[in-house]
Amino acid sequence: MTSATTLTGHKFERQFFEAVVKRRLFFTETFDIYRLSPNFKGDNRGLFDYGPPGCALQANIVDAWRKHFVLEENMLELDCTVVTPEPVLQTSGHVDKFADWMCKDPIKGKPTASGDYLRADHLIENVLKARLDRGTGGLTKDAPKLDQATIDEYNNILAKIDNYDGDGLAELIKQYDIRNPENNNEVLPPVPFNLMFKSTIGPSAASPVYLRPETSQGQFLNFKKLLEYNQGSMPFASASVGKSYRNEISPRTGLLRVREFLLAEIEHYVDPDKKQHLRFGEVSDVILPLLDRETQLAGKTTPQKLTVGQAVELKIIDNETLGYFLGRVLLFLQNIGVDLSKVRFRQHLANEMAHYACDCWDAELLTSYGWVECVGCADRSAYDLTVHSKYTGASLTVKEALPEPAKVEEWQATLDKKLVGPRFKKDAKAVQTAVEELDQTTLESLATELAEKGVVAIKTPGLADGSTSVALSKELLFIAKVTRQVNTREYTPNVIEPSFGIGRILYSLLEHVYWSRPDAVERAVLSLPLAVAPNKPIAHRISTRLRKLGVANMMDSSSASIGKRYARDDELGTPLSVTVDFDTLKYGSVTLRERDTMRQVRGPEDDVVRAIKGMVDGTDTWEQVLNRMP
Amino acid sequence: MTSATTLTGHKFERQFFEAVVKRRLFFTETFDIYRLSPNFKGDNRGLFDYGPPGCALQANIVDAWRKHFVLEENMLELDCTVVTPEPVLQTSGHVDKFADWMCKDPIKGKPTASGDYLRADHLIENVLKARLDRGTGGLTKDAPKLDQATIDEYNNILAKIDNYDGDGLAELIKQYDIRNPENNNEVLPPVPFNLMFKSTIGPSAASPVYLRPETSQGQFLNFKKLLEYNQGSMPFASASVGKSYRNEISPRTGLLRVREFLLAEIEHYVDPDKKQHLRFGEVSDVILPLLDRETQLAGKTTPQKLTVGQAVELKIIDNETLGYFLGRVLLFLQNIGVDLSKVRFRQHLANEMAHYACDCWDAELLTSYGWVECVGCADRSAYDLTVHSKYTGASLTVKEALPEPAKVEEWQATLDKKLVGPRFKKDAKAVQTAVEELDQTTLESLATELAEKGVVAIKTPGLADGSTSVALSKELLFIAKVTRQVNTREYTPNVIEPSFGIGRILYSLLEHVYWSRPDAVERAVLSLPLAVAPNKPIAHRISTRLRKLGVANMMDSSSASIGKRYARDDELGTPLSVTVDFDTLKYGSVTLRERDTMRQVRGPEDDVVRAIKGMVDGTDTWEQVLNRMP
To answer: Per the database record, which ranges form the Aminoacyl-transfer RNA synthetases class-II family profile domain (chains A, B) (predicted)?
Structure first.
């Protein structure tokens, strides 16, 4: 499947879909009345508010996520602050590396809808796609037709567009004469733009802070406390749901590229030598559509269907723990109503990966905007814990007793301190530090050299006379292999991180469950599953009874016709509607209507309340209700 | 009650309490390993992370809040962005007025623990309280004893400390020789410090934004869409739960004064002429401890106990809607386990109120830090909707059809355009605008003057010759009373805003439910009610069964003794513990232990699971379980 369709397989017409979500206030541009006001100047793109049904849908998705991951696996949930001091993000690499490549349109006085700044990779993508669509080679309609070689060339670039760095993007812009499509201006070469929002904390303005771009850093910094809380037992996971921020260069495409968004993230801490997973068997038969690195670099886009078990065995997925989470992600998406025929797992290309990741698979969902990254599963290795530990001096490791003591052979260097002191005087300490910091490989080769030549040069920083190394003879330096007994093992855990963009999932889900009644394209329905649907309109007394049972619902006492009310329910994705009419007063019976089939049953109020509660809890189904009620 | 006690009425020892919440990771200072690192410089005070039990307790309190308010009254919940463009907060008054008074300690080279900046009102409060505690009149121990008149004077200032503006605070600092208590330095006069975090959005740096200091503005800006969503029906409420930010000058006192915090806010939109509330009867008998403005200005602090009904009748509480919410707030606090003997409702003093409020009552909870504002109930009148409407030009009003057409008598001014044009030439338009903008009171007095003198002066801005008024004779201007028929009424709703600081409520609640076993002060218990307690430790199979029923729980498979495990459960506030032992394997029976009474029952696994689920749902009680199980 490569282009978006409605749930019933018809062409997806975005303008009808957008009219529904706007009319029903699922979400709306933030500060709309300001944006539309002639007095307002400034940039407020990429910010969205969720209205009542969107807010409820979002809460239900997060609730389902918590049950599926956090509660199911006893993950340790945290709520960390968004405001983050600069040194933390300096250490994590975000201050230096968390950037996109940006091109400025230098020609003043011609402001474009997208502003004067363009994200370089998106610019190239848009221009090449437009050329492919038009079938021409250049900027104008009259440009010569594209030949097959050029078409292949463009498609090849597009398939690996995420793999270009700044120089690569600059080269493409030059080679293919890429310009601002809105005004045909040439653009300046790409420069990096850091995506974090910056501020200062406290009254003195001397303490810079950023809004976190991900929830993970707060989790990592609590690692030692969490390990203690978990009574020292490994592996375990922490989890966090919270707002995160990225100052996108040029946000468009609605909810899919926003500057403030809800992330739900899991950090699973695992022994790097034991990446098996205890519950792997539960997901090993789940079938995943996998688009690996090699396939993409070959310019192809058709995923391979493999079970999690096969993919791990074939080493397409690196290890059991990563495979386990990819399987669990698919099951979660299925639970909340995502169309599985519109899901694929795509492996990141080498240059595309975040600076902290050593491998990454994205769960992508097909929408009318193309394939959208909704869940990222990164293997962050020991990167974060290592850098934070180095900066702060805090130990972020796991120590475990070995089942039995082990013998370790290692190279050891010893200095004759009696001779070194008088020989190097003030430099003696620098020499000693340099020797202590030699690694095993270096020691091994130095041992050979020392035996052969009787003297070696050791790189030594901080010498008084400004030279960079010292010569040590075998009288001063002694290198030998020794055997040491160890009773414990100390390691920095690796981190597997499934990271969920809740807003993107919510938007893609809405596209997936959208369809129209066959008789009229404007009669829209959102077939959201009962577990996540915002609410269930109902009459007053029944509403009160369901509320007491914890079932979210909405009463519609307007004077609208019954047809209009049902249409409203359909567009809100309301799975069940109860109608109270004259017969209710007379016989105490009410009508229960199911959204997708539009079929109705009639029965006593008590039976209907019990049926609704049962269906919400998952202990009853509409088919069973249909069978037993008239 | 004026000083903090444990739940069992013993002296509250903060160091023991803090040890428990720290040990059990309810919350912890953010970026702790950075704060403790010698490499770290900068300010990260006032930021806290919630660990697993704190995070669960917070989620349960928010869940209880949603059920009690949002679900119960069909409020329209929104999730709006934190990032807010400057014009919005300029219009709302926050850019100019959302500030605290700050004193700088000018002496360099002597950094104090609290930094170089002090919040003026807190500084005065701390110094005067210390003098009262010491019983001396000045900075040193040897200063003369306080006489009764001075003691009364100090107490009087403290009772109304929130009522001083910048000049008032400066005067107090001078008059009472208030100095930085940490180093005895004199401080500079107070200056305003804006409490909002500032940043910029987009790549051009030309668009300043702030982190919202409250969730309300996003709700107000969606008013028109919400009114439509609610099918035009009034009154109704919107609600929002989300992070908000205040760059506090000098945060101390743990969770009680933080720079990033969770707010749960309700904006109830009501016709200013109809502030009755349909469900007022449900709370009119609830008894509130009220500390009104007059009592405080008299220097007194003893609240008056009145029912909501009495307080509204006596006009102590302004109207039914405000009274309704104060009653509902008390019931909510009771639900989640707050000690009602440690609650009071305090009315804001005139200068203390936020710039947008015309009346405000705080629900304050007694803690070891004194009385803490946890819920604010402000009447924001039509302030916010009016200013946003004025800036944007968007209509933020309600139009309602009158039950029958009404006749309105009003003064009307008419200019003879044929004469005005030639007479005033270029100024004619300015004159016409000036006349159109005259209000009813002015028109009435002008009518009399015109009849008496035959000519009136009208203030007219923008005249060509720079003069400020024109003379209009009765030949040019005609003023008369006319009768007009109107079919609709248009009004800007008033807003009643109950605003909940979730972190403060959580902290105060923890203090309220804390006590020690009589035999040992270090054996701490947190008697959190079942509805909000973080979790319920349990053995594996039972854990799985309860999880399927949606009951959050935690399994403890450590090798710790049963006594240590129960102690851990007590400190986590875990209401029920299940123990699986050798008898379980033999007879299939397990032990269920209740936290507060430490009593245990033993029974088959099925019965115990059913009992736990029943107690969590509120359909069963521990007393009933005790009665039917051995």
So the answer is: 196-518
